[in-house]
Amino acid sequence: MQAIRERTGLKPADLGDDILTATEPLVLRGLVRDWPAVQAGLQSPEALAGYLLGHWRDATVGVMLAPPEAGGRLFYNDDFTGFNFERKVGRFDVVLGSLMQLLGAPQPPALYIGATSVDTCLPGFRAENDLGLAVDDPIVSLWLGNRSRISAHFDLPDNVACVVAGRRRFTLFPPEQIDNLYVGPLDFTPAGQAVSLVDFHAPDFDRHPRFREALAHGQEAELEPGDALFIPSMWWHHVEALSALNLLVNYWWRRTPDYMDSPINALMLALLTMRGLPPEQRRSWRHLFDHYIFDDGDRAVAHIPAHARHALAPLDDAGARAMRAHLLNRLKR
């Protein structure tokens, strides 16, 4: 395991394409230390709670609640028929109050608000605490809770995660380590994304021997309040909240137009249509995908007049709508 590369002394205005389009993760020490929310958290948990409630406007939030014996790990239950936590909906102020009451508990239940819109939950927060990224339509979310462990997973968008309060440990793996992470189901997941089934606190190398290889390629960093981490698209990340009260604000964005669907949809369709084919046919389809998708796409269509390329033409909004309608029609059975 190696340390994630770091830079210090940067301010949000310094985040240019050299960072936001990088293909390797980067720790940005002290990037948001000047945020008022960070300063409130450094003062005390009570000061942070008061600051957040000053921006809250009667919003409800989704909450995950796991028993003390889960050790903060939000995961599947023992037989993989469900999960080891409950999902609830509550008022933000009530959940925050519960977190404050649990601060001194030796073995508290895990209480976790994940992926909640900052603008919906805390209107006005970003007027005082924001990166102002020069990207299109970032999704800005908050993650609030006590000690928790989120299994390694990847996200399609690029990501800047800003630690507002508490400490967090991030363990990252490049996309090609999927073979060594023992990933669970694609469509039955704790929080939307497929996750590694390896318990990072107690890896079972008899069941998951290839995880040793993943660790050899892993990168890790522990972040303090005011630090941030750039996570490139598709990088696997395991996240641990290490303090009794933790707040993270993250920014997700894609470098592709809105009309492009998630590639996960293509993966699910491939499972539906190709995984059960005989090996020689799967090899043929791999060549076809290489020809049209993964190799030089221009060479694949250069012999077709531009006006006659149809689905093979460069994609735009109209073309995406037509292709989506075509697919929906083909999928009707």
TrEMBL record:
Residues 111-268 form the JmjC domain. InterPro entries: Cupin_8, JmjC_dom. It comes from the Bacteria. It holds the Pfam family Cupin_8. Signal peptide: none annotated. Gene3D superfamilies: Cupin (2.60.120.650). This is JmjC domain-containing protein. It comes from Pelomonas aquatica.
